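Worked example 4.2. Below are the chains of a multi-component assembly; read each line carefully before continuing.
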Amino acid sequence: MKMLNEIIAVQQRKSNILTYVALFIGIALLLISAQLYIDTYHIMNNKQIKNDKYDYLVMNKNITNAMMGNNASAYFTAAEIEALKNQPVVKKIGLIESNHFPIEASNFGELAFSTQLFFESIPAEYLDVNTDQFNWQLGSQTIPVILSQDFLNLYNFGFALSQGLPQMSEETVKALSFNIEIGQTENYTAEVVGFSQRYSSVIVPQSFMQYANAKFGMVTTKDYSRLVIQTEEADNPQFVKYIRDHNYSTQNEKIKWSKIKTVVGIVFASSSFIGIFILALCILLLIMYLNLMITKAAAKLQLLSLLGYKTSILQQQFTSHLFKSFLFIVILAFLVTAVFNVALAHLLAKYQLVVSPWPSWQIILLTIMLPLSIFYLFRVKAKKIIQQYLA
Amino acid sequence: MSFRLQQLNVSYVHTNVSDIWHQSVTFLSNQYYHIRARSGQGKTTFIHTLYGIQKNFTGQLYFQDKPTLHLTHDEWCELRSKKISVVFQDLKLFTDKTALQNLLIKNELTNYYPLEMIHSFAEKLKITHVLNRNVQTLSFGERQRVAIIRALLQPFDCLLLDEPFSHLDNQNITLAAALILEEVQKRKATLICCDLEQDTHFPYHKHLNL
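Applying the procedure described above to all two chains together yields the following structure tokens:
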């Protein structure tokens, strides 16, 4: 359309260069902020030593002075459990059941002791001990038990040393067995089959707990004061806030990143916002420029439409060069972001922090979507403005 | 069949007796119509109505058996580049462009004739020497001939002429009319020519009073 170009000569004004510079700054700021946010998130999620895809949080209510003497208030209600289940980051919830009957553990011989004890049972899938010995059938006289690693440490380093007692390895403890008397009537032999790092408790198979609670339990209601939550993101800021707000307590170690995540989120959100703000202003300026150009050419456009030129052809005269400039700037901003990310990856590698030097897919998607949506916006706007003059 | 009018009327045109306004008229293909009207009787209004510029009318206007009332702007543009051509009374040229540019802007849209053909038209109408001059430096007669050639650089089923020869001498009128007739015959198109007086520029099939 050589002649059409000559008739509607749309000149780039010098003041437009400023708009394009601002546009570049806005888009680059947006892309770099987004990339940095993604990098940071990546680093933080990698820093936690994860054996597993999931984290397990053991949760109970905080005991306050007001709750003392009222044990019932330490239990989770069905509604509270349901509300927890509905939290977006909560994958599954395991209910930890405790004994409602008296337990007396004792041993004779060299390591003679006698003590009152408690049991808890946890659904097998939430356990961090892999053993096939951990099951109990009705009629069996032996109860397999999983002990907390903490208990063994307390004994070995706190108790045994000071009392002149022998220290015990995990293997030694596994070789020992002791007597259990429950409900003051039935006797069992308990054998330690493993040690848990996740639970500070004495864990028995659920089948045994259900049997014993049914037979010797002093209360019939089933209440749970401790839960275990399976989650992919234990330090999710919203979730941590939820825990705090409801006065629940859990392993603080696992949720310590949440505060940093929140701060980082705010910082990058605000710089992204500034980027979007500049971008929006520039788009507004470009649309005003579009409006001005079309208005100046209004008489010519009317004549061209009398000759048979459709709005779609005329509109291109105004939008195509604007769009080309925009596309150029977006690509430039993307390249700057990519180079920035490579430099960042190199720098962070010195601190043993691993970041991919390639731009993330979100940034690539943004780089593609931005010109497409602007292309569409310019076309629609230009058509609308032209139609005003041709109606 | 090209245009069909049913009780067509425009509120601000006042005539007592008319073959067009408030009548049912059909314009057939390959037929040449002369429409005679004195000044102020709505000649230009009539042309503008047929060309889709003036839309405030009562009655019905059909083009090739389709009502034109609901045609969109772009659909009118389509008709103007493929089906209907026009020579306006006020010519509607780009006055800040050269005569040739004014011709090319039409031909670029339609791709109807090669450049040599445009030059041969210019030669026939004796305006070759002004082709590269700005339109504002041309006499009205020269401009009229540019507008006539421009109207021929596209396919059409109907050609509308609004006082096309008003500033031409008899010799130039003969040349221009011959060229127009030749092009209309090639396309087997309808010719509608509006003029002030009775004329014999074309072998008219019908004379109508506006």
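Take a moment to check your reading of the output against the notes. The mean pLDDT of chain B is 92. Chain B has one domain: 3-209.
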